[in-house]
Amino acid sequence: MVYTIIKLVKQIRRRRRLGILSMLTVLLASVIGNAITFYCFETPVKPELTLSDSFWYSIISITTIGYGDYHATTLGSRIGTVIFVVFLGLVAFTTTAGMLIDWIVDLRVKEQTGMSSIQAKDHLLIINFPNESRVRQIVEEFLSDKAHRRDEIVIISDSINSIPFGNNNVSFVRGSPLEEDTYQRALVTKASKVIVLSTGYDDPSSDSVVASVASIVHHLNPRVRIVAECLDPQHQLLFGNITGLSLVYTLHMANNLLVQETQDPGVTALTRAITSNLIQGTLASTEVDSPIEKEVNYQQIAVSLLVGDVNLVGVIRGQDVHFSFNEMNLWEGDRLVYISGERYPWAVLKSKI
């Protein structure tokens, strides 16, 4: 049944394309035929008439504008106008215009319902749609950073029929996050970043679905950076050894923050500020991708950066996170985590040291 419907839709699209091409051919033949007829029969009485004037008269007549600067005066040109303009041209023009409008409307409807292919590059994919408020907040937070203000975002989900909010940067692909065709329409091979959301906080199979999605995305584009939401830290093994994958334990972090705020009031306000692009002072990270000529201690680096309004709060080396810098020297490949008014590449931070 599904195969029959798909085949029928393809046949309708093919016939529509052929219909538009046929009407365009008739329209072109009408313009040329009327222009030649008008030129041949009118030049004997209007020697100043040129072939370009004839084409101008033909196009203006068929489009029903009719400025009146040229008109048929001889019997032959009048018969030609009736045949090529009235009988053929007007029918072809109105039919073609109607088909083109239907085609444009159809494309717009397909875009809104997520059934069209996306034209994007270096875009962000957001996979799964647990609820509108979460996805809307993620979109607004991501686009609020000036470095990503013009980035395109593509939402992939089979749980909604259209995006419930409007944003010129956001497109929608409707389809199963577990099927390759969905990712082909979302141009996953050209995406630079992927966020895989949970299917729902009350869904016990959410982590399994998210892990499967992350595995499929990595298979289709091994270079893309994936950030996946994991509800239970014990499910980490589900994600295997996918390179370029970062797991965010949303509920675990939320629970920790509740306890921290209970014990140390004010922690929530600071955490909210440093984890949002909408508030001045952002928690950012930069990888050390080039060495420094001399050996330098992170304690010295922290002091130097602080003078430049960059507060170094931690260093990630491999899988370990370090907060104490007393006996730790800078290594290439380290990732510096800091609080600052903006994000800096390593070359800029290096100049501050």
Characterization of this structure:
By secondary structure, the protein is of the alpha/beta class. The chain folds into 3 domains: 2-112, Helix Hairpins; 124-248, NAD(P)-binding Rossmann-like Domain (Rossmann fold, 3-Layer(aba) Sandwich), CATH 3.40.50.720; 281-352, Alpha-Beta Plaits (2-Layer Sandwich). It contains 10 helices and 10 strands. The strands form 2 sheets. The chain has a 6-stranded parallel β-sheet. A 4-stranded antiparallel β-sheet has the order 7-10-8-9, covered by helices on one side. The longest helix is centred in the first third of the chain and has 41 residues, at 2-42. It is elongated. The N and C termini lie far apart (67 Å). Mean pLDDT is 87; it is low at 1-12.
How large is the share of residues in beta strands? 5-15%
Number of helices: 10
Mean pLDDT across all amino acids:
87
Distance between the termini: 67 Å
User: For the CA atoms, what is the radius of gyration?
Assistant: 31 Å
The CATH H-level homologous superfamily of the largest domain: NAD(P)-binding Rossmann-like Domain
Number of strands: 10
| Assembly annotation | single chain
Question: What CATH architecture label of the largest domain applies?
Answer: 3-Layer(aba) Sandwich
CATH class of the largest domain: Alpha Beta
In the CATH hierarchy, the third-tier topology of the largest domain is known as: Rossmann fold
Strands in their spatial order, largest beta sheet: 3-2-1-4-5-6
Counting structural domains, the number is 3
User: What is the 3D shape?
Assistant: elongated
Unreliable runs? 1-12
Task: Label the structural class.
Answer: alpha/beta
Please bin the fraction of helical residues: 40-55%
Order of helices and strands: HHHEHEEHEHEEHHEHEEEH
Largest sheet: 6 strands, parallel
